[in-house]
Design brief:
The complex is a heterodimer of chains A (646) and B (382). In chain A, 37% of the residues lie in helices and 17% in strands. Chain A has a seven-stranded mixed β-sheet with strand order 3-2-4-5-7-6-12. A five-stranded mixed β-sheet of chain A has the order 9-11-10-13-14, sandwiched between helices. In chain A, strands 15-16-17-19-18 form a five-stranded parallel β-sheet, with helices on both faces. Chain A has 646 residues and is an alpha/beta fold. In chain A, strand 18, helix 21 and strand 19 form a beta-alpha-beta unit. By secondary structure, chain B is α+β, with helices and mostly antiparallel strands. Chain B is built from 15 helices and 15 strands. In chain B, strand 3 and strand 4 form a beta hairpin. The longest helix of chain B is centred in the C-terminal third of the chain and has 26 residues. The termini of chain B are far apart. The chains are: A alpha/beta (646), B alpha+beta (382).
């Protein structure tokens, strides 16, 4: 049995994302949809795992907006549903979200956003708490693993109480760390779906699910949000701990609560500093805030990414100026805390120490010295593609085609492991100078290609992953085709949503629930819009290079090259080498070869190393994934590949 | 304080001086030595950056500086040297005795006949000649028999990376004796290899046993030429041959559907820019140089003859053998013909030097040439 189905009252070690999934199960979840994205992916994966036992419908949708639409349909039919994404997914879903919050919902609908402060696994430090304020929906932020479960469960009740979406925000350190959780009861009964729409237009239980009449519905929406404030005033998820009259009050939420607690302990300030921990961060409950703000004149707001909480607290305080008098606020706005990046206990302790004029007990000098000495031993590791990664071969081909063409063409990048080509330019052989959101590479390419009339004569290429293709590329590709944008569009098809852990996508014949489903063919879609389509194996350097150079010469239309080769870490490949690869010492001329170490200096697969004693190339058999591509690049043919026998 | 030593990366200066300086002849001397430089269509492309100093790519390039005097002294007898056309041991008109070969080849078929003979007699094991594919892309190919030689006979008018084929062949250990049919820039590159090869590479260049040079006024840039053909609805595949008939001031294209003639000015608009800076029209660094005969009044008679400069003892021996074996019909050329040739070759030198000065902006900067070189000094405009 999955630990997600542990019986009530047992204590289980859950990852934050599992705790959220358990909370949803305890709430009687029926439908869950999402799009993979770190740090959110494990929620849908955990739910898919128990879908059969819990009679759930779980899907990986093509993108976050569609995921929210799928979840909303379930809600309209009276079911409880959840929609899961990472921070930038909320931007994708936001168009529908705006209309959904205006029409309202029926069955509990919880939008879970797992955010990535410091962009550890993102190309942005997006912050979606502002959506809750902008769209006037409640926002909950768990600050422990137990709360992750409990708040999620309550979020469904809250959503049904107000007939609208509830947003639950987690961050990397909450989603991906683990802690003990005491389980509650899993409901025995499942709901039946039923969608009524014949009732009066203003009746959100029986009428049509539309946002009009807009002003009347908006008025109702805001009235319900006022009701949320009342619920939040008494919520056990908002708690104060500390002295009755603290010298400083910390207001915080999420994992920043844990950092704050630790910082107080580090500085020994528990008799002087109190913490108001908020689990319900929008709308802020005014009476609760007033009660705690009155305790002191100095307030530190601890939060990650933008100063959302700080702004909201200040607005409330400004409204209560007469009763409370003026306060000194510390936080991101006055620079007490950094305005970017992830926080940690040290950063919070530094800010706290400065405000409280307390010096943190410094570490023994010896310790620091030893630490620095040890740090120097850690080898420098560049960000690069894995050994055997098809992207390395793809970018090798792309680079060569651009170089041969000679017009200084470039690649508009996109989001995936292949983003590495932009993040670590040598890894992408200096081909990819732009990187934005999913699908944007194709849109940008479509735009660049129309600049010829302004004297811009470079060939434009763009890449996207297979999952990205379905997510957001199709409209941009159609745009390019329709507007005659001369682009070479390359799909780096590695047979799965590889970066987030091989979740299936519409191009594969398997669903999140491991059912057999129709695969939607990328090549057929591209051909149907009228583009010229070719398919190649990126490991076949000769063929791929020929197609690419011919595409760059073929002016005036959209050319599509689908480079198919499964990710080196994919379950079907992992641990299995296609080739045994080794360097023949007799053939490798080492430093006397004119190659100037092409294999280790330019190609740079992590499995290729330079033997400093022999002064020759060497294959690290432990790291080598056996793709055999390096055998094609050695001018001496000194790298030998032989078919591996299984 | 020590002054930091400025590292000079060969590939980088080659790029700056030659490739970006519009001097690249596309000869292929820098290609086939490493994985970094390749020829694509008729352009030299640096695929990846190489950080080696004193690279062969720079050393062998015919458009990087060379002590040409040293080169001449190494290859030729001092008494044979002329300022206009290099070393001249002998000057003749010639044609292949094989009528079919004359039909297949350009003019008198002398080059093909000499290469056939060298192969047949075992003077060389392989001949490297220029070949053209359907797409009009030129490449150097290694041939070992008469049939292959004849297939590739005829003037091409676009550059071929022939020296790259030599580099590749010479790198294999069992290349044997190699003969190359070379344009002036290619012959210069091969001569530079002899001068500059480092000890470890001696064995490679020593395999070069024969260079037959081709007279060359200029070559077309492939792209521009293709465009010209495209504008005139000439399918590239249909082109069987080309010529610039003496005294006609036009370019003739021989296709399956007959001959098409272009004013020379149209053709000259397609010239590869590097050719404007070349001083050598008679392949001065070859063993024997061969061109179209220019004599008398009748083009129809002339067009099946070649003119030929014998430059080295090795060249002389080959011609004598060709006469002895009866593969070549050789006539002594009148002094007036050589005088005319020198005149034309000298004019080309003067024109190229003017172009070089226009490019560099100073008579003191002759780009790849040394202004103190006696030949250069002779043709510098006063």
């Amino acid at each position: 049995m999955s630990k997600l189905l542990s019986p009530a009252r047992t204590q289980v070690l859950f990852m934050g994302n599992e705790a959220i999934a358990r909370g949803a199960l305890e709430a009687g979840l029926n439908v869950a949809a999402g799009y993979p994205g770190t740090p959110s992916s494990e929620i849908i994966e955990s739910l898919a795992h128990v879908a059969r036992e819990r009679k759930l419908y779980v899907e990986w949708s093509t993108n976050e907006k569609v995921a929210l639409e799928v979840a909303a349909a379930a809600s309209f039919a009276g079911l409880r549903s959840m929609c899961v994404m990472k921070q930038n997914g909320v931007n994708v879903a936001s168009d529908f979200l705006l209309h959904l919050t205006a029409s309202g919902t029926r069955g509990g609908l919880v939008l879970v956003t797992c955010e990535d402060p410091g962009a550890l696994s993102s190309v942005n430090e997006g912050e979606s708490r502002y959506f809750a304020r902008m769209l006037e929906i409640p926002l909950l932020e768990p600050s422990s693993f137990q709360e992750a479960k409990d708040l999620t469960k309550w979020a469904f009740e809250l959503s049904e109480a107000i007939g609208n979406v509830v947003m639950l925000r987690s961050v990397t350190r909450m989603s991906h760390a683990s802690g003990n959780v005491i389980c509650g009861k899993l409901p025995a009964k499942s709901r039946r779906a039923k969608f009524d729409y014949d009732g009066p237009v203003m009746d959100s239980r029986t009428g049509p699910m539309i946002s009009t009449p807009v002003v009347a519905k908006h008025t109702l929406h805001q009235k319900k949000l006022k009701g949320v404030e009342v619920l939040f005033e008494k919520s056990p998820f908002n708690r104060y701990a500390g002295p009755a009259k603290p010298q400083l009050l910390i207001i915080t939420s999420s994992v920043c609560f844990l950092y704050s607690q630790e910082a107080i302990k580090m500085l020994g300030l528990h008799k002087k500093v109190g913490i108001l921990k908020l689990g319900c961060t929008w709308p802020l409950p005014p009476a609760l805030l007033k009660k705690h703000l009155l305790k002191t004149d100095k307030i530190l707001i601890v939060e990650e990414v933008l100063s959302f909480l700080e702004e909201n607290v200040k607005v409330l305080a400004a409204g209560m100026l007469k009763q409370m008098g003026s306060k000194i606020f510390y936080g991101k706005i006055d620079g007490s805390l950094p305005s970017v990046g992830e926080l940690n206990p040290d950063i919070v302790a530094a800010a706290l120490g400065k405000i409280m004029k307390v010096k943190r007990k410094s570490l023994p000098a010896d310790y620091t010295r030893k630490l620095q000495k040890a740090a120097a031993l850690v080898p420098v590791r560049e960000q690069t593609f894995c050994a055997g990664c098809p992207h390395r071969a793809s970018f090798w081909n792309i680079h060569n085609a651009i170089a041969l063409d000679g017009r200084k063409g470039f690649v508009c990048g996109d989001i995936g492991c292949y983003s590495m080509a932009a993040l670590s330019p040598a890894t992408g052989y200096h081909t990819m100078p732009t990187l934005h959101s999913m699908g944007s590479g194709t849109g940008l390419a479509s735009g660049f290609a129309k600049l010829a009339a302004f004297g811009f004569d470079k060939p434009i290429l763009t890449v996207c992953g297979d999952s990205t293709f379905y997510h957001a590329v199709i409209p941009a590709l159609i745009n390019a085709q329709h507007n005659r944008a001369d682009i070479t569009f390359i799909v780096l098809d590695n047979a799965g949503t590889a970066m987030t852990g091989f979740q299936p996508h519409p191009g594969l014949p398997t669903s999140a629930l491991k059912e057999t489903v129709p695969a939607v063919d990328i090549a057929a879609i591209c051909a149907a819009i009228g583009a010229k389509v070719m398919i190649s194996d990126p490991f076949d350097l000769e063929t791929t290079s020929k197609i690419l150079t011919s595409f760059l010469e073929d002016k005036g239309s959209v050319k599509v090259l689908i480079l198919r080769q499964a990710c080196a870490l994919s379950p079907e490949k992992k641990g299995k080498k296609k080739f045994n690869v080794k360097v023949n010492d007799a053939l490798c001329l080492g430093e006397s070869c004119g190659c100037n170490r092409l294999c280790t200096r330019i190609f740079r697969c992590p499995a290729l190393i330079w033997d400093r004693i022999k002064k020759k190339a060497l294959v690290d058999e432990v790291i080598c994934a056996g793709c055999g591509v390096c055998a094609s690049i050695c001018p001496q043919k000194a790298i030998l590949k032989t078919e591996a026998t299984v | 304080m020590t002054t930091p030593i400025k590292t000079v990366i060969s590939q980088k200066i080659l790029k700056k001086e030659v490739l970006e300086g519009d001097l690249c002849t596309g000869c292929g001397a820098c290609v086939g030595l490493c994985p970094y430089q390749v020829i694509y269509h008729d352009r030299t492309v640096q695929l990846h950056t190489c950080d080696l100093e004193n690279g062969k790519c720079y050393d062998f390039c015919p458009r990087t500086s060379t002590d040409l005097n040293e080169l001449r002294n190494m290859l030729f007898d001092a008494g044979d040297l002329t300022p206009e056309t290099g070393a001249v041991k002998g000057y003749y008109f010639s044609r292949a005795t094989d009528r079919q070969l004359r039909e297949d080849a350009q003019h008198g078929g002398t080059v093909t006949a000499l290469m056939e003979l060298a192969l047949f007699e075992g003077l060389i094991d392989s001949a490297i000649v220029s070949a053209r594919d359907q797409e009009f892309v030129q490449n150097g190919v290694v041939v070992k028999d008469e049939a292959a030689l004849r297939k590739n006979a005829g003037s091409k008018f676009t550059v071929s990376p022939t020296v790259a084929a030599f580099n590749r062949l010479a790198a294999t250990k069992e290349a044997g004796k190699i003969g190359v049919v070379a344009t002036p820039c290619q012959a210069l590159a091969l001569a530079k290899m002899k001068l500059k090869a480092v000890k470890e590479d001696r064995g490679k260049i020593d395999q070069l046993k024969l260079v037959i040079g081709l007279y060359c006024g200029w070559a077309f840039a492939a792209q521009k030429f293709k465009e010209l053909m495209g504008q005139n609805d000439i399918e590239l595949e249909s082109i069987a041959g080309m010529d610039i008939p003496a005294g006609k001031n036009s370019l003739e294209i021989y296709t399956g559907n007959g001959t098409k003639s272009f004013p020379l000015s149209d053709a000259q608009a397609c010239i590869r820019s590097a050719c404007n800076y070349c001083l050598d029209s008679t392949a001065e660094y070859a063993d024997i140089s061969v061109g179209a005969a220019r004599f008398g009044d009748s083009w129809e008679e002339m067009r099946h003859w070649n003119q030929m400069i014998v430059r080295t003892g090795k060249g002389r021996n080959l011609i004598e053998l060709a006469i002895k074996r009866g593969v070549l019909e050789v006539r002594n050329a009148p002094a007036e013909s050589l005088r005319q040739l020198k005149n034309v070759a000298g004019e080309k030198k003067k024109e190229a030097l003017k172009n070089i000065i226009r490019k560099s902006g100073s008579a003191k900067n002759l780009l790849y040439l040394d202004r103190h070189d006696p030949v250069v000094r002779r043709f510098l405009a006063k």
